[in-house]
Design a protein that fits this description.
By secondary structure, this protein is an all-alpha fold. It is 79% helix and 0% strand.
Length: 275
């Protein structure tokens, strides 16, 4: 008798199963929207598909009457640039501090307690401090992302380095490698794919901190626009913006996974063999 844990769907059926929940949600939304609009044609809570289309066309393909800019693309560019800066700085910090703390006991003793303490501070609690210290410009939003995700990446990278087989480090020393050579030739090649995976996992939190920062103090950005139009209960703009953010996050996550597969095929072959 075949057990359920041993049954796996075919590739086409897997795609169908993946699409099915989204299709159900869309059908439920359309039914609920039609029901509310039938009772009140001016209802704003659940706009129709036609209202979504009109809002997307207005935000993406018509210049703003006030600024002359195409607001969706201006907001997207501003948010992605802030996100890129915050994530790249966090990844660089994670790579440098995580590798050093994992490899060098002195560095671990000196810095590990500090980053553990920082990782326990709720980033949103210090948001007012960031605005006071760094002002209401771009720096405070980028710093919020860094404080939000960098400690998590650093601590995990340290753990990944400590998991490396001791035999490799001993063998490298036996062959005459110094500390720098061990770091560059033994440690870094093995933790780089894990760093990309960590960055991918931290994207959701990075978006959260970005939206929070933009909601409080910004003149452009996806989070800024969402919180601006909520005053008018413009769900026909808010929901497409949320869907657009989700799509951008999905594309970024997919690109990182492809980058990892292309750059480190040996790592994914090893992971596939273990699974």
């Amino acid at each position: 008798m075949k057990r359920l844990i041993n049954l796996a769907p075919s590739r086409p059926f897997s795609v169908l199963l993946a699409i099915l929940p989204f299709a159900v949600l869309v059908v439920l939304y359309i039914a609920a929207s039609d029901a509310r609009l039938a009772e009140n044609a001016n209802d704003k809570l659940l706009p129709s598909i036609a209202q979504f289309s009109a809002a997307i066309e207005r935000m993406a393909f018509e210049p703003s009457k006030r600024t002359g800019e195409y607001l969706l693309w201006v907001d997207t560019a501003a948010s992605l640039w802030r996100l890129f800066q915050g994530v790249m700085i966090s990844a660089l910090m994670g790579l440098i501090f995580g590798a050093c703390m994992g490899l060098f006991p002195y560095a671990r003793s000196a810095m590990s307690p500090l980053f553990v303490a920082i990782s326990l501070i709720p980033p949103m609690a210090i948001l007012p401090i960031l605005f006071i210290v760094f002002g209401l410009g771009e720096v405070s939003k980028v710093v919020l992302i860094v404080i939000g995700i960098a400690p998590f990446i650093i601590r995990d990278m340290q753990a990944r380095v400590l998991e490396l087989p001791k035999e490799q480090l001993i063998k490298a020393q036996t062959l005459g490698a110094n500390s720098w050579q061990i770091l560059v030739r033994v440690v870094l090649p093995q933790i780089m794919p894990r760093l990309i995976a960590l960055v991918s996992l931290s994207l959701g939190a990075a978006w959260l901190f970005l939206i929070a920062g933009e909601a409080i103090a910004a003149q452009e950005g996806l989070g800024y626009r969402i919180f601006l139009v909520r005053r008018y209960m413009a769900m026909d703009v808010i929901l497409p913006y949320v869907a657009w953010i989700t799509f951008l996050a999905f594309i970024t996550d997919y690109a990182l996974k492809q980058l990892s597969r292309k750059s480190f095929p040996w790592f994914h072959a090893l992971q596939g063999a273990k699974s």
